[in-house]
Amino acid sequence: MADNFSVFVVEDDEFYSEVLEYHLSMNPDITVTKFTNAQDFLKNLDKNPGAITLDYSLPDMSGEEVLRRIKEYNSDIPVVMVSGQEDIKTAITLLKDGAYDYIVKDEDAKDRIWNAIKNIRENIGLKREISELKQQVKKKYDFTTSIIGNSPAMKKVFAMIEKAVSSNITVSITGETGTGKEVVAKSIHYNSARAKKPFVAVNITAIPSELIESELFGHEKGSFTGATARRVGKFEKAGEGTIFLDEIGEMDINMQSKLLRVLQERELTRVGGNGMVKIKCRVISATHKDLAEEVRKGNFREDLYYRLLGLPVSLPPLRERANDTLVLAKHFIDEYATENELGKLKLSSKAQNKLFKYPWPGNIRELKAVVELCCVMTDSSTIEDKHITFNSTGSIDTLLQNEMSLEAYKNRIVKYYLDKYNNDVVNVAKRLDIGKSTIYRMLQDRAV
Amino acid sequence: MEEKKFYNLEQLEAIASGNEDFVIKMVNMFLEMTPALLERIAAGIQIQDWTEVKSAVHKMKPSVDMMGVTDLYQVIRDIENNAKTNTNLEQIPELYFTLSDTLEQFFEQLRNR
Question: The domain B10-111 is classified under which CATH number: 3.30.160, 1.20.120, 1.10.10, 1.20.1250?
């Protein structure tokens, strides 16, 4: 707020405007320009003052009229009305017409004007900050920088996102856990025409099923025990923005039909309420499940499936994204290094190989965690393969995701046991319940 | 016996916060402006132009308040209100005399400050 703030004082009483100017100029950041009549002042309106104090009774024009003209020119300029008389009716009219404040010239007037100007400046500062932050958020979710990857699979995704951004269509996102469904949803929102409106994310699995209806649609006071006040649901909160329904596949079947109705009618009723509330938000849903399969199994309503499908964006798992693993790994390393001021870190070729070969069941989320850990583990500016540790939880699944032949799996299992029991063939044969000779043969063939 | 002081510059001095030039400037401004306004009120009463009376007294109000002439606080408001609402108009000349008499003494005190 260090920058200069221009205040126009429009006041036909010279004595009073002198006092006001002097008083406001006590703050060195404030520049005061005085006008004694409306004509002069209106001619200078294009200098865009930060705030205006306006005397209600000017010789050449009524206060209402001047206020109206200011608001016509730029409704954002705050106008503090100053009047010699206390007249509630006039005050209300002026405030309704957009005056920032109505102050009567009495003993406290100058302090109140001072405060009003101070508040206005703070307000402007906050507004500017908000718009800057919004810009930053937009930048953050500019999908060309927030979603990284050059693989053919990702190029398809980018093409779909672009389509989603330029239209209003419902979007459904599918992809394994950790593939970045929410990042994609946010990217679509912050690059669309709705960017300035809210983005509301709801994770269906995170809400107990009894509460989900009131969470989504809101409820009226007293509609159930514990509903002590009216509550606005997520759909209403999203307004003209975007609602993101994550893990939609987990929604129970009763709730599915309620959601379907709301999406069809484009209006909802709060729990325990009667009135209809129009919904205007865009719907983006996401799931890690194969919804078509869930429909076949009867777990997901077919009509809701088609209602939500819209533009389907399917996020490929990391293991199908070719070189993207390394591109992403380098990105996360740089990001982590910058955040923690670690200087430049690079991956040795062995480490690269290790990252590349791993199947990443947890996808990008796992990659990020693994990479951040190895940034911490390394002592030099190079990350070696020994610094990389995988902590995958679903180890069997991980193994299966390699999609090797049965022979190859068999060899791998035997090798695991041999390593674990110091190549004690007898012991291993006993544990695996196979013949010793089978193991010897495998060793001979150098299969293990 | 000490002469009654009609004014109190505390408010003005508070605003000036130590800047005596500002106080002098405002006092001089007041001395220049107010007699003309008094004349307007007098002329207005003569021809019973209450709108003019109201407007002139209204302009006088903030500066007289600022100068701390507490004796006139209510007088000014009464004139303004009566002229505005067209009620008790017969009281206005009397009120005007109080106003002008007090101001004359006040001017004198200010000049000799």
Answer: 1.20.120
Report yes or no on whether pTM surpasses 0.80.
Answer: no
The pLDDT of residue A107 is above 80: no
Which residue of B lies nearest to A18 if distances are taken between CA atoms? B26
Map residue B21 onto helix, strand or coil. Answer: helix
Q: What is the pLDDT of residues A54-97, one digit of tens each?
A: 988 888 888 889 999 999 988 888 999 998 777 888 888 899 98
Residue of B nearest to A111 (CA): B15
Per-residue b/e over B23-44, b at no fewer than 16 CB within 10 Å? beebbeebeebbeebbebbbeb
CB atoms within 10 A of CB A196: 11
Partner-chain residue, chosen from A19, A57, A107, that has the shortest CB–CB distance to B26: A19
Six-digit token string for A165: 């951004």
Amino acid at A54: L
- The dihedral through the CA atoms of A353, A355, A361, A363 has a sign that is negative
Query: DSSP label at B4?
Result: P
Q: Which of A51, A47, A119, A48 is nearest to A82 (CA)?
A: A51
Phi first, then psi: what are they for B68, rounded to 5°? 70, 35
Cβ–Cβ contact A64 with B under 8 A? no
Q: Does B17 touch chain A (CB under 8 A)?
A: yes
Question: Which region holds residue A335: left if phi is over 0, alpha if psi is between -120 and 50, else beta?
Answer: alpha
pLDDT at A395 over 70: no
- Is A105's CB within 8 Å of B30's CB? no
